[in-house]
Amino acid sequence: MALQVAQERTALGRLLSAPVVALLLGLGGAAAGLLPAASATYDAVWQFLMPLAAALILLEADLRGQAPEHSASSNRSVACSSAHA
Q1: Is 85 within the bounds of a domain?
Q2: Could you give the CA distance from residue 35 to residue 27 in angstroms, rounded to a whole number?
């Protein structure tokens, strides 16, 4: 609650989004030794949850507009150029 108020009312809070603040707090906690460098929980997250999350994100991605078009017009231009040669 206090962080939300600070984010809304201060100039620095308006510049930084909540994920950036969370990342900076995590980095600060790790640098200060408040967070462990290694843990079985970290291993489980990286081994199971991250690949699952990546797969789920890719399943929701709309890749139809990302692939290069191989349309009939591009094939026609190749056929026309070889016919004139």
Answers
A1: no
A2: 9
